[in-house]
Amino acid sequence: MHRPHASVGGEKPIGWEPMKSWHALELDLKPRLPEILTSNDDARAVVLDLAAGESLQEHEIHERAWLIVLAGEIEVSTAAGERAAGGVGLVIELPPRERHEVLAGANARLLMLLTPWPGRGHPGAMTITQKLYARRHAAKQRK
Question: What is the CATH class of 35-142?
Answer without folding.
Answer: mainly beta
